[in-house]
Amino acid sequence: MKDKNAGIWIGNRDLNQDEAYIHQADEQSRIRPDETGGLQSNRRDFLRIMGFSVGTAALAASCKTPVRRALPYLTKPDSLVPGIANYYASSYVDGGDYCGILVKTREGRPIKIEGNSLCPLTGGGTSARVQALVLSLYDTHRIQGPMVRGENNWESSSWENLDERVALRMPATSRVRILSNTILSPTTKKAISDFKVKFPNTEVVSYDPISSAAILMANEASFGRKIIPSYHFDQARTIVSINADFLGTWISPIEFSRQYAKGRKISEVSGAKMSRHFQVESYMSLSGSNADHRIQIRPSEQGAAIAFLYNAIAVKTGAASVVSPPLAEKAASALSKVPIS
Fold first, then answer.
1. Average pLDDT of the segment spanning 295-309
2. What is the pTM of this model?
3. What structural domains and CATH numbers belong to the chain?
4. Three-state helix/strand/coil letters over the chain
5. 308-328 pLDDT, tens per residue?
6. Digit-coded pLDDT (tens) for 52-80
C-alpha cells in the first residue's frame, strides 16, 4: 500500500510494526563503510549532521561574549559600594516648572529619578519630563565642554583658553547682555550678581520657549503687580479652566496635580466634599480628560466664553455686564450649569 502524504510504499510489516523488520531497517540506515572503504549514510543522517554543524557555527560566529575587565580600586571611596545604590537630593527646573527630586545612582551613574517627598511644593510628585531627564545625561550628541569658533567650524577648547579669549574682548566698561531662560536658582542669581560687580553695564535678558509674558502683563493691568500667580486647587469648591491645562503643562503642573488630587477626595470625618471641575477647551488635554464637565468650544469662541461667565457673575454681584460675542448654543447651555454664588 502507498502512503498518500509521504509518497512512499508501506508494507504489512510496517503497518504491523514487525520488530525484526524494524531492527533490520535501523541497521541499514546507520552509517557504514561501503565496498570501496568509504562511509555511506541516508538522507536523514546527512541533514541531521549538517543542521547541527551549521547551527553551531552560526552561534559561535555571532554570539561572542564581550570581554569585560574589572579593575579593583586602589583607594575605594567610602561612599561607594559596588552593587549598592546611592541617592542624592537635587532639583529639576525647566522654565517655571520646578520639582524636588531624588537621583538614584550606581557607581556614580544616575539611573533613576523619583520625587522627593520632603519637597513642600510637589510632595514627592513628578511628571513625564522629570522621569525622562536622566536620558539627557547619556545623550552622545551633548557638548562635552566649551566650544570656540575656529577658521572653518566650531572647535573644542579648555575653560582657561575660553576665559582668556573672553577677557581680551571684554573690558570692564563693556556693555554685556546675558541671554537665558527664566532663572530660579539662587546660586545662579548670586553668580550673575558677582559678575555685575565687575561689569556694571550688564543686563540679563530672559527668554522662554513657552512664554508667560501674557499672564504677567494681564496681572499687571488687573492687579498692578507683574507676577505669576500660584493657585490652591485643594481649597477650591468649583474649578473653571479655559484652555489652561493645569494638570499637564500650565505654570506648575506637578504642584497643581498634587493639590487637585487632594481636593478630589471625599472625607467623611472632616466633611470635605469633592471639588467640581469644568474644563472649557478647544483641544483634548490632560485636564479635560479628568474634568467632570468638558465643554468643547472653537478657538474663536474663547473670548465669548469668558464674556459669558463674566456676565453671569456680574448679574449676581450687580456689576455692569459687557457686550458678549455670539457663543454656540450647546456651549452656552453647558456654561450656564457652572455654580456661581
1. 92
2. 0.67
3. 14-59 (no CATH), 86-136 (2.20.25), 172-229 (no CATH), 230-335 (no CATH)
4. CEECCCCEECCHHHHCCCHHHHHHHHHHHCCEECCCCCEECCHHHHHHHHHHHHHHHHHHHHCCCCCCCCCCCCCCCCCCCCCCCEEEEEEEEECCEEEEEEEEEECCEEEEEEECCCCCCCCCCCCHHHHCHHHHCCCCCCCCCCEEECCCCEEECCHHHHHHHHHHHCCCCCCEEEEECCCCCHHHHHHHHHHHHHCCCEEEEECCCCCCHHHHHHHHHHHCCCCCCCCCHHHCCEEEEECCCCCCCCCCHHHHHHHHHHHCCCECCCCECCCEEEEEECCCCHHHHHCCEEEECCHHHHHHHHHHHHHHHHHHHCCCCCCCCCCCHHHHHHHCCCCCC
5. 999 999 998 888 989 888 888
6. 676 776 666 666 667 777 777 788 888 88
